[in-house]
Amino acid sequence: MGDANSLLTADEARHLLRRAGFGAKPKDVAKIIKRKWTRGKVADRLLNFKPSRFRPGGKDNDETRDKWLRYMLRTGRQLQEKLVLFWHDHFSTNVETNTFMRNQNRLLRVNGKGDFKAFVKAINVDAAMMDFLNTSQNRKAIPNENYGRELLELFTLGVFDLNGQPNYAQEDIVQIARAFTGWRHEEDGTPFLRTSQHDFSDGSGEFASRGPKVIFKTSGQFGASGRSFTVNGQGEPEIDEVINILFDHRDSDGENTVARHIGKRLYEYFAHADPDKAVLTALIQQSGFDMTFTVSAFLRALFVHDAFYTSAAPADIATVKSVKWPVDYAISSFRMLRIVPKGSSLATRPTDGSPTLRGMLEDMGQILLEPPSVFGWDCELGWISSFPMLTRYAFARDLAYSNDNTRHSLRPKKLIDLTLTDPNAIIDAVATVLGAIDQITTPTRNALYAYATNNATNLSVDLNSTDGDKKLRGIFALIMQSPAYQMH
pTM higher than 0.85, yes or no? Predict the structure, then answer.
């Protein structure tokens, strides 16, 4: 059993760096081992970043995507960007107004590791979210339920708790919709309440039939009278009070529902699917996530827990793994291979007509700033249908065989010792560069060895020859195409 004081092994260090960033560079793993850093020490170093206020520029979403991708390629705050990707999926938003999407991107970055309650209150009045889920059209005569529904279903509670019990009723959505009536934003995205469109009814006014503004009469362990969200007055205070009440909600075990729902989602993103309920509860208690809702505290508890490292072993039937998101797969590959994509289009090859990075990501199934629905991307199995996988293979091939010896191409001499001749040593060197040496299974190694030696007919490889260079690049491509690299 390990804890925050346990020294990280090389395999554990690679796993942590892969999950909390974009790949595990050999020099970073070596530093951790040489300095005998513990799980807690490395977790603290990863989490100890001052949130950047970076806001990707661009006159349209294509340019903004390129700016964000380039930032991911260069930033030292890798965990921050992994969190921005997570929250971009969690608070899935897709609107045409580029300025609003850029502003939301910064909002995710600034709030991503902090107080989740404050984060949700900020999302309430984010212009992109207000337009996407129709808060901007929510009026007192016909309250729009879209945001209220997703606030409960996706953003905070989840439809059911961990025991399969419902966390809310339709009436709760109806009432929460009333709180958001009249909210609008200026052209620059500044939110305001248009009082003429706000439902100020308290049970005796214009909309008396709707009754008092009360939620959770049947769930949350608030009692049959539920909780009123007008205790601080009607109008502007209502939407913050709705969030305060949501964060007091208790599930059928008497545990904080928001902490469990968000903790589970973070666990699944950074570790693996289907976390054990007892482990999840322990992480929440250890981190105080159910009281402070501090995301970094929960992640710290996760990164030092044994359960996080259960998926560090190579993929087999007994190891729960996750398929890398396309953006993670691509950005990690560039960073691990020290390739700087060419030009503003982020071409994967420096030749005319090369596919752009964002174009290949689209074919892999992920268009940043344009998640397919309010539910975000269809992750895991959704990433590995036939066409997206073929695109991944093509991407790996393009990177491996880019060979004009510039910063925009793979330069093997910068990565491994070209005096190596033993095929197994070459395979190990390439796998180490890619941060996947601990993931190479025996069948994968056998296949790589057969490729490197032409089925054991050539047991020595001259990496400085034309044929040897092609073999080496082929090994890079094959490892990037293998399950050992596609999953983490």
Answer: yes
